[in-house]
Specification:
394 residues, DNA polymerase, domain 1, hpI Integrase, Chain A, 2 domains, 15 helices, 6 strands, elongated, DNA recombination, Integrase-like_cat_sf, Integrase_recombinase_N, DNA-binding
Amino acid sequence: MRLTLKHRVLTSRARKGWHSIFIEIFEHGERRYQPLDMVANPADKAQYRQTVQFCKDLIARRQLEMKGLASGLVAQESDYAGGDFIAYCKQVADRSKNQKTRENWHDGIKSLERFCRHGLTFREVDHHWLESYQDFLMDAYSQNTARSYSTKIRQVISKAHKDGYLTDNPNKRVQQIPEKEGEIKYLYLEEVMLLHKTPHRHIERKTAFLFNCFVPVRPGDLANIKESNIRPDGAGGYEVYFRQSKKQRIESIPIAHQGMVYLEQARELARQRLGRELNANDKIFNIGCKKGFGGMLKVWATRAYDLYARKLEPEVRNHFSWACKDVSPHWARHAGATMLLNAGAQLDAVGDILGHRDKKTTMRYAKIHPRTKRTTIDDAVYQRVKMNHGLAKQ
């Protein structure tokens, strides 16, 4: 048997020019191929050399394995046990086509390198090591960040076990770090309307945020909405039809009447910015960098509170007093989900609009207003008392 390392040049849009590496196996006059699920960018010479060397080491170990089997020997542990686990993690990370996902992978790998400053072999990856690594993550990061990084490495461990690099899967013996449910923050409809009344020099950012309150896409998707993403919905209205950046799924969200008002304002601002009519590939919203957008929102909301808070009822005014200092771009999506739920929309419908597959996720985003809870309880109690005692509601 002869094993030869080969590659083919990728032509996909995301990885044009990259090399996909595989093994050519020539045995008994027949040629076959075995994929390695390894890709590398020749332009990144250091990473490319590391990937090729890793694949060469893999072939060498596999040849030793075949010789051992031919002579009747059985290895006591994986022939790859001495291999570089961190390098393997990087190869798995580089297979992701989505840039944001690759960045998340590499952030997780950086945490692994912090924990294993002198490297890590497959032989060292057992349940004792995994417990220690997760304890390190919990000490060094917030719980949800620790869970995110742990999830990435656990995925690599499962793949390594499946590929034969690990004889045992330590994931089965070590419990994953639990997710901590964070507080979902949002704005009341009254607060959104006060923002509408409050001027700010960043008109494009203001319009984008208000549109987002009524069309609850993720901020990253909002920034990428093009003229071609707006289309008729078949019922006399319009919808946003797009591929979401987080899960890469196709989504469509109907645009409410108030959302159309802000969409037309954003289109007009885009025409003024470009000095021409919009083409299909022109982006509609101009929100700039995330940090700048968030800072602008706080200034704008604080101004709205100073100008109009006295007109709000006490409960909303108290909420707005701290919300204006903490508001961020994500609050628009949360506000939209909350307004839909409090307007009587079904939970499944809200989840579909938000692009959620799990109802629990929708429940986290679409919180019921405290006053809605109170009104519901008051009405329920009143109905019970009325039935039993015939009392009139005061």
